[in-house]
Structure formats: structure tokens, C-alpha cells
Design a protein that fits this description.
InterPro entries: Chromosome_partition/occlusion, HTH_ParB/Spo0J, ParB/RepB/Spo0J, ParB/Sulfiredoxin_sf, ParB_N. The protein has about 290 residues and is of the alpha/beta class. It folds into 3 domains: about 140 residues, Conserved hypothetical protein from pyrococcus furiosus pfu- 392566-001, ParB domain; about 55 residues, no CATH class; about 45 residues, no CATH class. It contains 11 helices and 7 strands. The strands form 2 sheets. Strands 1-5-3-4-2 form a 5-stranded mixed beta sheet. A two-stranded antiparallel ribbon has the order 6-7. Strand 3 and strand 4 form a beta hairpin. Helix 7 packs parallel to helix 9. It is elongated. The protein starts with 7 loop residues before the first strand and ends in a 25-residue tail after the last strand.
Length: about 290
């Protein structure tokens, strides 16, 4: 690996003349945080210079400091201090990603996507990335595995503020539909990491083997009734989106967790109101 500290000089540049780095892994910047940084820059100036490179066309391209550059523009600075580094486009891209991957405020999937680009686009090995970032190779491999999750799964994880360990726990489920149902439950119940790991372990727990002479009972892979409750929620949502005036609510007793779904008779082809009950108890409900 090269030493990007070699052959560098400090200059002042208008912020509008600095072009963003296409290898920037960060896709979102918190407006409130940027505003706070801009206020600090107005009062104290930019304490840490940006790092840029001169492109073959003579333009300046940012290597490190995207957040600081945006804040400088908000603060209205006409010139910003920049360290000019002598590196090519490949080195610049790798430096940009490494600089951002070392930050703690990257999103789970921003970090994973940045690592993927390092490995696939720029030929950095997992061992090299681990050494540069101060992580183990297994940690890098685990982060790359997160990219197996689809866009809908990623959206829930990001929206709910779930962690990498939440995501890794859910990845133990093979089917996407099971992962989505589990994630919705984790979000709804605000489960922490330990609770999520226990919940997923319960979902995939293998059924005990039947003893000799006993008839083999049919088992269901997903053994937690909460996934079936999520299915009920989804069915009601679909009906509502289709214009059917479906209503649902749940109530709890000492022995039952009861879900009720009602559909107007006029929209149910003449059938009686539908009541779905899910739960376990010592006796069947009477009355």
C-alpha cells in the first residue's frame, strides 16, 4: 500500500471548485449535524483541512472531508484549506472509502457497500482492508454478508435503527419472507440484540426427534405464533389497500391473545363478519 502523506502541500481553494469523490460511500448527511458543524466553522474556522488531489484535467477532486466541505459551503467560506495529495484515481478512491469506513457514524449498509466496492471494484483483499481498518478478517466477511439482505429488509433495519448484530441474527433465516416477518416483529416490539437473537433461535430451532415406536408428528419450521400474527396484519393491510373496509384489533385475556378481523357484509359476498382468533389456553373459548 502507498503512503499518501508523501508529496503533499497545503493550499486554499474556493469550495465550489472542489469536485466530490465518486467513491464516497456515505449516501446521507444529517442536516442538523451539518448545521452544527457549520456554526463551529464560522466561529473557529476549519480546524482540519480537506484532502484533495489534482486530476489529469487540472480540476481538484475531494479525497477526504465530504462532510466538512458541505459544512464550509453552509458557513459561507470563500476559501478552504486543502492538503493536495499526489495519488491516482484508484488510490484516491481507496483513501476516500477508508477514511469514511473508519468513522463510527456510517450506516450499517453504507459501511458494507463501501467494503464491497473496496474488494470488488478496487481489488483490495479482505485481509488488507481488515489491516487498514483495524478489524479482523472475519469482521469484514460478516459485514459483507449483510449485503445478502434485500432492499425492503434494509429499509426496515435502517428505519428502526437496528444494529449490525440485529441484521446478522435475521440472516440466519433462509427465506426472505421469514426475514421480513421477523424484522417487522423486532421493529414493532423494539427488541434488543439479545432478545432478537433468542427470537430467531426459537424460530429455527429444530423439532425434537420422535422416539422409536412413536408416530412422527408434522412440524412447522417457524414455530413462533408471532409470525402468523404478522401474516394476519399483512392480510388486513392488503384488504385496506384494495379498498375493502376491513378492521382489526387484538385483546388479551389471562389465557388468550385474541385477534379479530371484521369485513363489512356488503364487501364479503354475503358472508357473515369474519373473526380470526389466535392464541393458546387451557380451554376453548365459550359463549
Amino acid at each position: 500500500m502507498w503512503n499518501h502523506q508523501d508529496k503533499k502541500k497545503l493550499i486554499q481553494l474556493p469550495p465550489d471548485t472542489i469536485h466530490p469523490n465518486p467513491a464516497q460511500p456515505r449516501t446521507s448527511f444529517d442536516p442538523d449535524s451539518l448545521s452544527e458543524l457549520a456554526d463551529s466553522i464560522r466561529q473557529n474556522g476549519l480546524l482540519q483541512p480537506l484532502t484533495v488531489r489534482r486530476t489529469p484535467t487540472g480540476e481538484y477532486q475531494l479525497i477526504a472531508g465530504e462532510r466538512r466541505l458541505r459544512a464550509c459551503k453552509l458557513a459561507g467560506l470563500s476559501l478552504v484549506p486543502c492538503v493536495v495529495s499526489s495519488c491516482d484515481s484508484r488510490q484516491s478512491a481507496i483513501l476516500a472509502m477508508l477514511e469514511n469506513l473508519q468513522r463510527r457514524d456510517l450506516g450499517v449498509f453504507e459501511e458494507a457497500e463501501g467494503l464491497r466496492r473496496l474488494v470488488e471494484e478496487w481489488g483490495v483483499t479482505q485481509e488488507e482492508a481488515a489491516a487498514r481498518l483495524g478489524k479482523s478478517q472475519s469482521s469484514i466477511a460478516n459485514k459483507l454478508r449483510l449485503l445478502r439482505l434485500g432492499s425492503e429488509e434494509r429499509e426496515i433495519i435502517t428505519r428502526a435503527g437496528l444494529t449490525e448484530r440485529h441484521a446478522r441474527a435475521v440472516l440466519r433465516l433462509d427465506k426472505q419472507e421469514d426475514r421480513l416477518a421477523a424484522l417487522k416483529w423486532v421493529e414493532e416490539q423494539q427488541l434488543n440484540v439479545a432478545q432478537t437473537e433468542a427470537y430467531i433461535a426459537q424460530l429455527i430451532e429444530p423439532a425434537p426427534k420422535a422416539e422409536k415406536g412413536q408416530k412422527k408428528k408434522k412440524t412447522v419450521l417457524v414455530r413462533d405464533v408471532r409470525l402468523f400474527m404478522n401474516t394476519i396484519h399483512h392480510a388486513v393491510d392488503v384488504m385496506k389497500q384494495s379498498g375493502i373496509g376491513a378492521q382489526s384489533w387484538k385483546r388479551e385475556t389471562e389465557e388468550y391473545l385474541e385477534y379479530v378481523v371484521r369485513i363489512p357484509r356488503s364487501e364479503a359476498s354475503g358472508s357473515a363478519p369474519l373473526s380470526l382468533v389466535k392464541g393458546e389456553g387451557k380451554k376453548a373459548a365459550q359463549g
